[in-house]
């Protein structure tokens, strides 16, 4: 699996021959990518705030995945023909990837005055195998937490049962977790790799991202913190690919 951070909460994940774009918002200071440069197979939306769906209209040729309320809005507003409406706890097969939706602790709504409901906010666990209760040492999963605060489900459900190996966590504070709570999340999830996101995009969420690295170390977590530059990629090789 290869992950690319395009700033804020916008990620591109490649699982074998399938490409997935999460929360397309290219109006952020970290990216030089124009939406027309990308051609994802799937676009995953965590919630309806403008800094997460701002450029979804550029990707109507892709399959749009999100809550039924949010995908219906994209179909109505942008003419998307291919949508997958799903809900909390569900897993859908997206090409070579398996996508599981989990709740996020946040608000939701579409439009300047949030005049449209987008259903509950969400995060996604993207894996190369379907999640089961049997641990598969060759499997790999990436957790995009969406916009969220710290929640016990990270410790009690997502970590032990969905078993992500890597996580992208919001760290900018004000609207989501800040560095200290995001570090606790990384520890609870028991991931090997963690990526900060949703910070330094606009003044209320400007932080010293080094604080997150220090807070992760303070928890005793052994997770490696990867602070990516905008449009930087990081590749994970599955164990069985080396055999």
UniProtKB/TrEMBL annotation:
<dbReference type="InterPro" id="IPR050114">
    <property type="entry name" value="UPF0173_UPF0282_UlaG_hydrolase"/>
</dbReference>
<feature type="domain" description="Metallo-beta-lactamase">
    <location>
        <begin position="7"/>
        <end position="198"/>
    </location>
</feature>
<keyword id="KW-0378">Hydrolase</keyword>
<dbReference type="Pfam" id="PF13483">
    <property type="entry name" value="Lactamase_B_3"/>
</dbReference>
<dbReference type="InterPro" id="IPR022877">
    <property type="entry name" value="UPF0173"/>
</dbReference>
<protein>
    <recommendedName>
        <fullName>UPF0173 metal-dependent hydrolase ATH50_2215</fullName>
    </recommendedName>
</protein>
<comment type="similarity">
    <text>Belongs to the UPF0173 family.</text>
</comment>
<dbReference type="InterPro" id="IPR001279">
    <property type="entry name" value="Metallo-B-lactamas"/>
</dbReference>
<dbReference type="GO" id="GO:0016787">
    <property type="term" value="F:hydrolase activity"/>
</dbReference>
<dbReference type="InterPro" id="IPR036866">
    <property type="entry name" value="RibonucZ/Hydroxyglut_hydro"/>
</dbReference>
